[in-house]
Bifunctional glutamine synthetase adenylyltransferase/adenylyl-removing enzyme (Rhodococcus triatomae), 1004 residues
Amino acid sequence: MVRPPTARSVVPGPGRLGLVEPGAPDDLRALGWTDADSIELLWALSRAANADLALRSIVRLREGLGEGWAELDARLRVDKPLRGRLFGLLGASAAFADHLAAEPEAWKLLAGEVPAPTRESALEALLGSVQAVPEEGAHRDALLYRAGITGPEAVAILRKTYRDQLMVIAAFDLAATVENEPVIPYQTVGHELSDLADAALTAALSVAVATVCPDKPCPVRLAVIAMGKCGARELNYVSDVDVVFVAEPADACAARIAGEMMRIGSSAFFDVDAALRPEGKAGELVRTLDSHVAYYKRWAKTWEFQALLKARPMTGDMELGRRYDQALSPMVWTASEREDFVPEVQAMRRRVEELVPPELRERELKLGRGSLRDVEFAVQLLQLVHGRADESLHVKSTVDALTALAAGGYVGRDDAANLTASYEFLRLLEHRLQLQKLRRTHTLPPADDEEALRWLARAAHMRPDGTRDALGVLEAEIKRNAHRVRRLHAKLFYRPLLESVARMDKDALRLTSDAAIRQLAALGYTAPENALGHLTALTGGLSRKGRIQALILPNLLESLADTPDPDAGLLAYRRLSDALFDQTWFLRLLRDERAVAERLMRVLGSSAYLADILVNAPEVIRLYADSPSGPRLLETKPEDVARGIATAAARYDDPARAVAAARSLRRYELARVASADVLGMLDVPQVCRALSSVWAAVLGAALTAVVKADEAKRGTEAPATFTVIGMGRLGGYELGYGSDADVLFVCEPREGADETVAVKWANSIADRVRTLLGAPSTDPPLEVDTGLRPEGRSGPMVRTLASYAAYYEQWAQPWEVQALLRATHVTGDRDLGLRFLYMIDHTRYPAGGVSEQAVREIRRIKARVDSERLPRGADPATHTKLGRGGLADIEWTVQLLQLRYASEIQALHNTSTLETLDAIGAAELLAESDVELLRDAWITATKARNALVLVRGKPTDQLPGPGRLLSAVAQVAGWGSDDAGEFLDQYLRVTRRARGVVERVFGE
């Protein structure tokens, strides 16, 4: 609230002072602050973050002081710094109001020319409070003392003294909200809080020494290493203090002293946490220096070296602490050379983001997107990458590291300055939130809690700007800084890379080639030299496209870095950019639609199958955008695609051109379906149905075109009708990306036509269709397989309906009857196709069920398939098609039940494995739990099989062993965890359980 120039003659009312509570007038009268001589006090009070809270707290303080109130009242009227400190503190912190109510004389710590808190003053106060003296015989460089007071009395004294010291820091920090005091920089506050923590644990250690060794000198050298924010001297008001202990010797006495120090510190000051020690909470609390070194050389993970970035000797034997730092520091700066560096860092980043509940992500200052952790993660990663070659980056605090990164040219100076400003703003909000009740919190108040947000705005020095009140300014600043952090987080890694290869800014500091290669390697590129070459090619020259590429590539590269294969993704993006060089919409779309860019990078970095096909079907990329009704990739229906293929092919008289048109639309549909699959927008049945539909449509377009051309050439109607029966997965509409189309060709001579001529004609048509579809192409192949026809590959390719009927009546083998279970009409003459299906129904659904002899034969064939068809060297546990609990196991089991019971249960007359499983469950042929196990295994195996094709770009059925390829398959298969080993374990678990059902049912 701004004081009017003539306010000396007017006593403002409570409303003008920001006092809204009903008791405020009575409180002012009780304090004697209602006359003109109190105006300076009243206007100062009005500027507190919460004037009502400040007034209530002063009334409580008055009651606690009793006769001493007169002294404080008199000082407040003349001591402007005291007013700023006390009112600022009481208006922002209910916790410190409680402290002053309990310890009213502590206000004197804020009065007069109080020196700024220092490490030395904090040590003097805290050590003096427990009468600590230097420990006899301690190393001359040790901060090791022996307290004269121990037990609960020492804890109580330390708690009060620490709270007094913390109050002084907070009062200095908050004074600028009330009086025209200088704003204390965030770094200064962080240093003061860290120095206070050092002093506090030094005092706690002195009590621990006196407790554990009451009658003898301390027999061990014990160093306490600060980690995390305390180690970097950027501590919060309320935070755990992470520590690690080093001792010589690391015996029971050292462990007792360390444990006692933690207990005292956690009781009196803050939580003292030693979980960052080797082996975490399961490890020894105290280790020797040699033991620490041995652990980090042999066992430590990447995140543990990242944690060591901030390690700092804080108290105890400082010489031993410095030896610890000197021994481990070199390992920190070689951590980025580790083979698992990139996946571990990426996994850790994802885990941090997943910790935040979705409803809190926009309010979380520490862990959400655009948060403090984004800044710290990016800065630490850059330090680890470049610090092995540049010692100027060997600093601990985030702000100091940003300054060093800018000075070294690893980050642009403007970007570093902007990121520092946003980081300090977010830390300021975090500090104010914690001061309110001295609780550990990082969460902004809800958007509908205007009172809490308005308090936060005033406590964080927000002032009206002429168009918005303090609350409006705060909300705008939160959005602006979160957006800036998100944007700069992407730029931080990639902008210097691009500046090193593109003519973007002649004054820009650029990475050397070696530094750029280091940075790319650390971001997950296994061939960083090649990646640098791609960046050079994409951004080179002075063209407008090069400038746009340089503008959008930071975000693209960030998205690529989170994919299974960023190298392949970057190469695919370069190929795509080259192929679309003349298409202005492409780069414009990526620039203007962030979601499109992110989805494209995810696809390119995950799927070799799509990387190839998108070059020839780039228009699908437009579908990566969202429409008001949802993702555009899902707006197309398979039946609409089938009609479109038929219509497009019908425009051409030449069969080759008709098939080319059908191929083009198939290519587009494959790219659409596969993209939606990789992006997690389609489930397994939807994918299979869409792939089967497009296969049937292309087959139909080819057949129609060939027959049409033949009739035009003949000048007369064809001698026979012709239909195509889908078999196998095509018949069940359960095709995968790598599936062939199993079919039967059926013809029927027209009335008056010679059967021999008709069959010969039909064979020529079938051969022409297969040749056209199987012609060499850059698209995924279109192989038509007729191996399931009567007599197999030795039999005629096309038969008449009557010939099929005679064969199945006399000669059908059990495996052929089984194959017919999935027969369905897919294209060609519909009437003929339906008559074929009616004809085979009595063969595939025999009255009374299949004979026991046929069942034995089917079991024998299945056993032979298991032993002979599995490729040499394949692992039967992880072969998705023929392995244990794989697709063949499930399908043969389902088909055996159909053969036995379909004559009685009409619902089993179904070519789909999943739908038949539903019918089996409904008919109670199997327990529902068994049905679910079989269904789960079929979906899991199909998903894995499809993911294998998407990742590798070619058909394959064998899951790889642990490694990068398995990680890629796991991600494309929708596995939510970062651990591909868990995906493999889940696959083995599901298929093993299904195999148990198969052995019980199929081998019954």
Q: What stands out?
A: The CA atoms of residues 275 and 281 lie 5 Å apart. The first helix runs from residue 24 to 31. Residues 1-9, 503-509 have pLDDT under 50 and may be disordered. The chain has six domains: 1-112, 115-332, 352-523, 525-605, 635-844, 852-1001.
